[in-house]
Design a protein that fits this description.
CATH topology of chain A: ABC transporter involved in vitamin B12 uptake, BtuC
CATH class of chain B: Mainly Alpha
Number of helices of chain B: 13
Mean pLDDT of chain A: 91
Helix content of chain B: 55-70%
Structural class of chain A: mainly alpha
Low-confidence stretches of chain B: none
Radius of gyration of chain A: 21 Å
Number of strands of chain B: 2
Structural class of chain B: mainly alpha
Largest sheet of chain B: 2 strands, antiparallel
Helix content of chain A: over 70%
CATH architecture of chain A: Orthogonal Bundle
Order of helices and strands of chain A: EHHHHHHHHHHHHHE
Radius of gyration of chain B: 20 Å
Strand content of chain B: under 5%
CATH architecture of chain B: Orthogonal Bundle
Largest interface: A-B, 48 and 48 residues
Distance between the termini of chain B: 62 Å
Largest sheet of chain A: 2 strands, antiparallel
Number of domains of chain B: 1
Mean pLDDT of chain B: 91
Shape of chain B: globular
Oligomer: heterodimer
Number of domains of chain A: 1
Chain lengths: 356, 316
C-alpha cells in the first residue's frame, strides 16, 4: 500500500491555478481516447472530427455558442451555489420552471413591445427558477432536510409537471398530437444574432449575466458573505453574517440563473416548450462550474468548451461511428480530473516511510 | 367505488408487487447505509445502479449465466466504488462533487458501451431473466404463498442481504470499525486501525450492492435494459437512508413501505386514471421521499464524521 500524506501548500501560486484546468482537460482527453480506442477508431482522427464539428465552420461555431448559452447559465447557477456550499443539484428542474414561466406569460397572456417583453420573460423565468428553490431552503434551515436530495427529487417532479401540462391543459392544439407548448409570441422571441444560424440573443444575455455575477461576487458585500458562509457557516454567523438571508440570496441567484436557461431555450432556440427542451443542461452546469473553478468569468470559457464537446461529438459520431455518449464520458472524466487538479493545487503529496 | 381502493390491499398481487418493487431499493439503500456509516456520502449511487443494470444484463446477453451476471455487476460497482474512495477517502475531494462526477461517469460509460456493443438496436433485445422459485409447501399457502413465496431467487437474495448487512454492522469487529470510522475516526486510528482502509472497503462494498440493485431491474424485474430506467431510484434510496436512520433493518422497512405506496399508486392509477392524470401518480414517489425526510427530521442524527475527510496524523 502506498503511504502518503497531504500537506497544505503554503504558497498557492496563481500560475498553477491558471494552468491546472487546461492540464485537467488534457488528461481527460487522453483518458477519453481509451474509450475511442474501444470503438476501434483512431483517437486523433476522432478529436479532429470533433473539433471540426464544433469550430470548423461558421455554422458549427454558431451551433456551439447556442449550445453554450444554457450551459453558461446553469454553470453560473452551480458556481454561485457551490461557492456557498449550498448543493443545488436542481438546475434541471429550475430550468424547466423558467420554461414554464415563459410559456405561461409569453404565449399571449402578456403582450408588450419587444424591448420590454424580452427582459420581462427573463425576469419571470428567473423568478420561477429562484422561487422553486426557496421552499427547499426553508426545509434545509428548519428541518435540516438535505438540499442535495430535495433538489434532485424536485427535478423529477417538475419534469412530470411539464409532461402533464404539455399533454393536457397547455398542449398546443396546432401541434398535431406532438406534446409541445404554444409558440412564444413574436415580440418575445429572442432574435437571431448571426444570419442563417440558430445563434440568438440569449448568448449575449448569458455573457452579460456572467459578468454581472462576477461583479456582484467580487465587488459587493454579498460576495464576501457567500464565501464566508461557504467556508464556515457557524463562524460566519458569529462574525455577524446573516446566514439564512445569504443562503436565500444564493438560492434566488442560483435558481434564477438556471431558470433563465429555460428562457433562452424556450424563447430563443425552440420558440416553444417541449419535454426534451434540456438534454441534461442542469447537470452539465455542474461540470461547467467545476471546470471554471467556480469563477463566473471562467464559466463563459468552460461553458463554450464543454458545449463544443457535445456539438462536436454529434458530428464525430456520424462520421466515425463512435456513440455520441462519448461526449458525456469526456465531460464526466473532465469533472473528475478537475477535482484531482484542485487537490494538487491545494496540497502537496508527502510520501511516508513504508514501515510506519 | 371507494371500496375498490381498499380492495387493492386484499389482492396477493399487490403484496407480491410491493416486494418486487422494494428489491432494488433494498440493495441500494443498504449500499448507501454502509458508505455513510463509514463517513462517506456516495452520490454515485444513481450512476452505479444504471451501470450495474447495464453490465449485469449485457453479461447475460453475451452468454454468461444469471449468477455470473450478478457477480460481474457487483464487480463493476466495486470498481467505481474504489474510484469514489480514491477521490473522497485518500485525496479528500468534495464528496458531493465526486459523487455527481461518478454518477455522470458510470452512467455515460454504461450508455456508451451499450451503444458500442449494440449499435443499431431500436427495440431493446431481451434476455431470459430469473424465473420464479416457488418455495415448497410455503408457496401453497393461500394468499401468503403467492404474496411472499413465489419470487425469483434474486428477490430472496435481497432479503437475505438485509440479514447479512445487519449482522455485519452489529455483530462483527469490522462492522464496529465501519461505525467508528463514521462517528469517531480519531478513536479508531488510536486503536491502530487504518481509517482510510475501512472507509475504502465500506465504499467498495456499498457500491457493489448499489450495482446489484440496478442489475435486479434488468435481470429479475424486467428482461431488457432501457436508458434512464433507474429513473431517480438512487436518489430515493438516499432519502430512504435518512428515513431509516442509517439502520439496515429500518432500511428494509422504509423500502417496503415506499414500494407498497408505489405498488398501490400503480393500481389506484387504473381506478382513478380517468380523473387524475397519470403524471401526478408518478410524482408521488419523489414527493413522498421529501415528506419522509421531513418526518424523519426530528430524530435525524447524521454520522458525526460524514462528509469530513480524515487525514492521517492531523489533529481535528
Amino acid at each position: 500500500m502506498i503511504n502518503f500524506r497531504l500537506e497544505e501548500r503554503e504558497n498557492k501560486s496563481l500560475r498553477r491555478q491558471i494552468i491546472s484546468p487546461f492540464l485537467a482537460v488534457f488528461v481527460a482527453l487522453i483518458i477519453s481516447s481509451l474509450f475511442i480506442l474501444l470503438a476501434g477508431v483512431s483517437p486523433i482522427d476522432s478529436f479532429k472530427e470533433l473539433f471540426i464539428g464544433s469550430f470548423g465552420s461558421r455554422n458549427a461555431i454558431a451551433e456551439t455558442l447556442s449550445r453554450a448559452t444554457p450551459m453558461i447559465l446553469t454553470g453560473l447557477a452551480a458556481s454561485i451555489a457551490f461557492k456557498a456550499r449550498f448543493w443545488n443539484i436542481g438546475a434541471e428542474g429550475q430550468l424547466y420552471a423558467g420554461a414554464l414561466a415563459v410559456t405561461f406569460f409569453g404565449t399571449g397572456l402578456v403582450e408588450l413591445p419587444s424591448f420590454i417583453m424580452i427582459p420581462f420573460l427573463f425576469m419571470v423565468g428567473a423568478l420561477a427558477g429562484g422561487l422553486l428553490l426557496l421552499p427547499l431552503v426553508l426545509l434545509k434551515n428548519y428541518y435540516k432536510v438535505d438540499e442535495v436530495v430535495t433538489t434532485l427529487l424536485t427535478n423529477f417532479i417538475i419534469v412530470l409537471l411539464v409532461s402533464y401540462l404539455l399533454e393536457g391543459p397547455w398542449k398546443d392544439p396546432m401541434s398535431l398530437g406532438w406534446p409541445q407548448g404554444a409558440s412564444v409570441i413574436d415580440q418575445g422571441v429572442l432574435p437571431q444574432i448571426l444570419s442563417r444560424t440558430r445563434l440568438h440573443l440569449g448568448f449575449i444575455f448569458s455573457i452579460f449575466f456572467a459578468i454581472l455575477i462576477w461583479i456582484i461576487i467580487s465587488k459587493h458585500l454579498i460576495g464576501y458573505q457567500i464565501k464566508a458562509v461557504g467556508f464556515n457557516p457557524s463562524a460566519a454567523n458569529h462574525s455577524g453574517v446573516p446566514v439564512l438571508k445569504t443562503i436565500f440570496i444564493v438560492a434566488l441567484l442560483s435558481g434564477g440563473m438556471a431558470g433563465m436557461a429555460g428562457v433562452t431555450e424556450t424563447a430563443g432556440l425552440k420558440g416553444y416548450l417541449t419535454l426534451d427542451l434540456s438534454p441534461g443542461f442542469g447537470y452539465a452546469g455542474i461540470a461547467v462550474a467545476m471546470l471554471a473553478a467556480l469563477h463566473p468569468l471562467g464559466v463563459i470559457a468552460s461553458g463554450i468548451f464543454l458545449a463544443s464537446i457535445y456539438v462536436g461529438a454529434d458530428a464525430m459520431s456520424r462520421s466515425m461511428n463512435v456513440p455520441t455518449y462519448l461526449a458525456d464520458v469526456i465531460v464526466a472524466i473532465t469533472v473528475l480530473c478537475v477535482l484531482v487538479s484542485l487537490i494538487i493545487n491545494q496540497y502537496k503529496f508527502r510520501f511516508l516511510e513504508q514501515n510506519k | 367505488m371507494i371500496l375498490e381502493f381498499f380492495e387493492i390491499f386484499f389482492t396477493a398481487g399487490f403484496w407480491a408487487a410491493t416486494i418486487r418493487i422494494a428489491c432494488p431499493l433494498i440493495f441500494a439503500t443498504l449500499g448507501e447505509v454502509i458508505c455513510e456509516r463509514s463517513g462517506v456520502l456516495n452520490l454515485g449511487i444513481e450512476g452505479i445502479m444504471s451501470l450495474g443494470a447495464m453490465v449485469g444484463w449485457m453479461s447475460v446477453y453475451l452468454g454468461a449465466d444469471l449468477y455470473s451476471g450478478i457477480f460481474i455487476a457487483a464487480l463493476t460497482g466495486a470498481l467505481f466504488g474504489l474510484l469514489h474512495a480514491i477521490f473522497t477517502v485518500y485525496l479528500g475531494a468534495s464528496q458531493h462533487v465526486t459523487g455527481i462526477g461518478i454518477t455522470m461517469f458510470a452512467s455515460s460509460v454504461g450508455f456508451f458501451s451499450y451503444k458500442l456493443i449494440l449499435p443499431s438496436s431500436t427495440t431493446p433485445p431481451k434476455i431470459i431473466p430469473f424465473e420464479k422459485l416457488e418455495i415448497p409447501f410455503l408457496s401453497e399457502i393461500p394468499f401468503l404463498g403467492e404474496a411472499l413465496f413465489q419470487h425469483t431467487p434474486f428477490t430472496y437474495l435481497a432479503f437475505f442481504s438485509v440479514i447479512i448487512i445487519f449482522w455485519l454492522l452489529n455483530s462483527t469487529p469490522f462492522g464496529l470499525s465501519i461505525k467508528m470510522a463514521g462517528e469517531n475516526p480519531m478513536a479508531l486510528e488510536a486503536q491502530g486501525i487504518d481509517v482510510l482502509l475501512v472507509r475504502t472497503v465500506s465504499v467498495i462494498l456499498g457500491s457493489s450492492l448499489m450495482a446489484i440493485g440496478g442489475a435486479y431491474l434488468t435481470m429479475s424485474a424486467f428482461d431488457a435494459f432501457y436508458f434512464g430506467m433507474i429513473n431517480g431510484r438512487g436518489w430515493i434510496a438516499i432519502a430512504l437512508v435518512i428515513f431509516a436512520a442509517w439502520k439496515p433493518e429500518r432500511a428494509l422497512l422504509g423500502a417496503l413501505l415506499f414500494a407498497g405506496l408505489d405498488a398501490y399508486q400503480v393500481r389506484a392509477q387504473q381506478l382513478a386514471g380517468a380523473f387524475i392524470p397519470y403524471q401526478f401518480f408518478l410524482m408521488l414517489p419523489f414527493f413522498l421521499s421529501i415528506v419522509a425526510m421531513i418526518i424523519a427530521s426530528k430524530r435525524t442524527r447524521y454520522p458525526k464524521a460524514l462528509l469530513i475527510p480524515f487525514r492521517r496524523g492531523e489533529r481535528h
